[in-house]
Design goal:
Length: 428
């Protein structure tokens, strides 16, 4: 089948789908990935661009400068306001991607799903959610996008519904304009949610060992296991990194992914002081913050983008922002973590790491100091319990296959009777 995967966001919102796409291609499907143009060089799959770039949005989000909390209702409300222009331009890009690839089925990430549902309906093709976060309301935990802290089952479900309602204005006008553009009947967004959200399955790309599937979720919501990013074709480790790793004991990794853009110098001072105090070597990854340790700090190496599946198993511990993708990579590597969450779903994943015993208590970016980071580094590099728990989780993940369920579902579609064609030649 011709499968179109559509996603929007940062590197962590794109990389897992490269691995999922590779698995689908190996199963005989024709797969294209649609996402933002800046990721083209990182994607070996056939690629089509969609408008937008999250790097225009994230610097405006609360918490990025470390001066206050980036999570909670107020932070989420601001994130939604500044994301509005990005959401508004995504719909037309999805329409173009479906047309250009002649897609027969769509797989949609969390952010693009409400728009992608409309395009798939107009094209008369099946769709499925491929979500990296558990955003469906549940009594098991609070809304992930405001930190996930539990307030009890009834309150969790209520807060989940309220969070979903708060997001509707972000999509209301783009969905209305998109349906008008596609000659679809005009319907209210709540009605569309009820009709579309559970018509086809939503596969969640994380392990039930990390987030067990809530028993109160509807049957359409499945937890299938992680989708591991594909390594760039022909990639080889940089010689300077291999030399650094061979020159001493395993270092710690420090990187904050797409967080804190423009605040690299400030963060570097904190990181270097913590590394010296803890007496560990470190690999420091620049990320969108531009975090660099400089060339005059022995035992510290600054690097750019490197495949986490290669790098993390060689580390003594990983310090990161607890994005969904980086959290998964650290768990797969079986190394302890220090979580420094900033916004959105990151506090949720940070708490999961702590609950699993893989990390000490999270240190929100707004509370990050050299002393706190040094103490956490000392804990994860000297207490064998953190590494033991990390290795136990990694062993569990090694036995899972998150792509298998998606492949099975696509196979079931191939046995369905062919649908009649619409007047534009697409399947009804």
């Amino acid at each position: 089948m011709r499968v179109l995967i559509v996603t929007s966001g940062s590197t962590g919102d794109v990389a897992p789908y490269t691995g999922l796409g590779d698995r689908l291609r190996a199963a005989g499907h024709e797969v294209t990935l649609a996402t933002h143009e800046p990721f083209r060089d990182q994607v070996a799959l056939p690629f089509v661009p969609i408008p937008g770039d999250l790097r225009r949005v994230l610097p405006q989000a609360r918490g990025q400068d470390g001066s206050g909390s980036g999570t909670g209702p107020r932070a989420l409300a601001r994130l939604m306001r500044i994301a509005r222009p990005l959401i508004a331009e995504l719909g037309e890009g999805i329409v173009t991607a479906v047309r250009d690839t002649r897609a027969e089925v769509m797989l949609l990430s969390t952010m693009v799903a409400p728009l992608g549902y409309q395009v798939a309906e107009a094209a008369g093709i099946p769709w499925a959610g491929v979500f990296l976060q558990p955003v469906q309301p549940t009594g098991d935990f609070g809304p992930v996008l405001i930190g996930g802290r539990s307030a009890g089952p009834a309150a969790n479900r209520l807060l989940g519904r309220l969070t979903g309602a708060a997001a509707r204005p972000l999509y209301r006008r783009p969905i209305r304009d998109l349906r008008e553009r596609l000659d679809l009947p005009r319907r209210g967004i709540r009605s569309l949610q009820r009709r579309q959200q559970h018509r086809w399955p939503t596969f969640h790309g994380f392990s039930p060992a990390v987030v067990p599937r809530p028993a109160d979720w509807p049957p359409s919501q499945e937890v299938v296991g992680y989708w591991w990013p594909a390594r760039p074709p022909g990639w080889t480790p940089p010689a300077e990194v291999e030399a650094f790793l061979a020159a001493g004991p395993p270092p710690v990794f420090v990187g904050f992914g797409s967080m804190a853009p423009g605040h690299g110098d400030r963060l570097a001072a904190t990181v270097l002081a913590a590394v010296r105090s803890a007496g560990v070597r470190a690999v420091v990854q620049a990320g969108w913050a531009g975090l660099r340790a400089g060339d005059d700090h022995p035992g510290v190496l600054s690097v750019g983008a490197l495949p986490h599946d290669w790098l993390f198993p060689r580390m003594a511990a990983v310090v990161h922002h607890a994005g969904a993708g980086t959290t998964a990579a650290g768990l797969r590597a079986g190394v302890p973590a220090v979580a420094v969450p900033v916004l959105a779903d990151q506090p949720f994943w940070a708490r999961r790491l702590h609950r699993l015993g893989v990390s000490p208590a999270p240190i929100p970016l707004s509370r990050l100091t050299a002393d706190r980071l040094a103490a956490a580094l000392a804990a994860v590099t000297t207490d064998p319990r953190h590494r033991g728990r990390a290795q136990a989780v990694a062993a569990r993940l090694a036995g899972e296959d998150g792509a298998a369920r998606v492949i099975s579902w696509l196979g079931s579609l191939e046995t369905r009777p062919a649908a009649p064609e619409n007047r534009d030649g697409r399947k009804a």
